[in-house]
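Help wanted!
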Amino acid sequence: MTIKPLSNRVVLKNIEAEETTKSGIILTASAKEKPQIAEVIAIGIGEVNNEGKLIPMTVKVGDKVIISKYSGTEVKLDGEEYVIVKETDILAIVD
Amino acid sequence: MTIKPLSNRVVLKNIEAEETTKSGIILTASAKEKPQIAEVIAIGIGEVNNEGKLIPMTVKVGDKVIISKYSGTEVKLDGEEYVIVKETDILAIVD
Amino acid sequence: MTIKPLSNRVVLKNIEAEETTKSGIILTASAKEKPQIAEVIAIGIGEVNNEGKLIPMTVKVGDKVIISKYSGTEVKLDGEEYVIVKETDILAIVD
Amino acid sequence: MTIKPLSNRVVLKNIEAEETTKSGIILTASAKEKPQIAEVIAIGIGEVNNEGKLIPMTVKVGDKVIISKYSGTEVKLDGEEYVIVKETDILAIVD
Amino acid sequence: MTIKPLSNRVVLKNIEAEETTKSGIILTASAKEKPQIAEVIAIGIGEVNNEGKLIPMTVKVGDKVIISKYSGTEVKLDGEEYVIVKETDILAIVD
Amino acid sequence: MTIKPLSNRVVLKNIEAEETTKSGIILTASAKEKPQIAEVIAIGIGEVNNEGKLIPMTVKVGDKVIISKYSGTEVKLDGEEYVIVKETDILAIVD
Amino acid sequence: MTIKPLSNRVVLKNIEAEETTKSGIILTASAKEKPQIAEVIAIGIGEVNNEGKLIPMTVKVGDKVIISKYSGTEVKLDGEEYVIVKETDILAIVD
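Answered by r_m:
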């Protein structure tokens, strides 16, 4: 899919079923709440700060990340649900 | 049409019917909600930052973009509905 | 009329009847809502930024501009209604 | 009267009766609303910005100015009502 | 009394009875509202700005000043009521 | 006790009974309100500003200080109540 | 566990039972409130400030810290509850 987030934005796909990471963490998306664990699908080129310098991205496509239940914008593309957040709204990467 | 957005603003036209992008994404505008997918109709020259430098625009006329359901100002010109947003409110470009 | 807006402010006069611009756009001011299309009557000299530099104005007297329905301060002078906005609240110039 | 506003503040006196300016604008203060037209009675020396530079004042004592109905602090001194605003809250000078 | 305000803070004592300044202004503290006229009792050394420079104080002990009815923190020391404000909340000095 | 506040934070202990300072001010903590007078128990090393410079602390352990009734976070350690505030929330030192 | 907080974020684990620190402070987590004492489980590399400089972290893994009852985002990983906060939300380290 060709979706190009602007600035420091990141397109995430919620993890719908239980998954286990390489290090053995079980990731679960509660059926009752907006999931907090998601996979990075696409990333922007980074944010240009007030001095005009590009701040490169930290996350990369394929990373599993934790976001707050209340951050981001939900979008539906091609019948699938995505969440677009700024990288500064990503709390941590899980491995 | 001659409409010149100021600063980093962008004039968007909602996509009213289902469309398929070059890479095959189906873009649909729900009849029940303010659409999230729009086409760029006109762009400003960019924003001048606090150091007085012009930050050039990233999107260009003809781009299909994703915006939040709640961003921008709706205007009616010549009987047509448009949305004017700042480029910083555009989440991603879809191709 | 001698009215001198301060900083980057702009005095606007609502367009009360239907008008057609040079490029053929029909501008209409709805009777039910605060109009969104207005004509520039007077402009300030521009804003002085935090570095002490004057940022010159983009709009000029006579321009037809689009503003949000909710921006600006309404004032009544000599029996006529005007709206005073900051230039940063002007969304676009129509021609 | 000896009242010395601090920073970029301005002491204003509401125009209580109809007045006509040099260029012929009739200034009226509605009896039902907080007046929007006022005369400058005293000015501060200007604001010191974040770089430590003094930004000089634009308005001068005697100027007739337009302010928003909702800006400033009303004070009563010697039985008279005044409004103290920051110069950045003054919208325009009328002549 | 030994009270040392921090940064650009100022300790004020409300003027409880009618007083007349040197230039003849009658200062009155309404019994129904929080007074707006107060005397400077103690001052801080000034605020250190973002560049690390000390911005010296403008008011001095003994000045009569005007503050907004809603600014400052009321404190009771030794049975007396004081108001502590930042100097930037002082609107004007009256003489 | 070994408690190390971060940045420009200060650990305070409310003054529970009437005390008299060296200069004779009687400090009282009302039984009905959150006390406003407190003693400095521990201090951080100071805040690092946006330029990366450390701004040293002004208050020191043992100082009696005035804070607003509404500032700070109450914590209970070892059965005792403390308040942790930023130094910028301390209004004045009393002696 | 492999969890990598971004920027200046810190992963904390609430202290569930009474513990005594080396210096003898008894840390208790009330059963009725969100605990205020927590242990640092993982830390980010620090925040990049507006000048592009990395501000290193102050806390380290294993530190016992005090946070406000209302700060941070609760996440559940592998059946365990964690709180992710920015280091600037940590009030103090207890030893």
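OP: Thanks! One thing I noticed: Chain C is about 0% helix and 45% strand.
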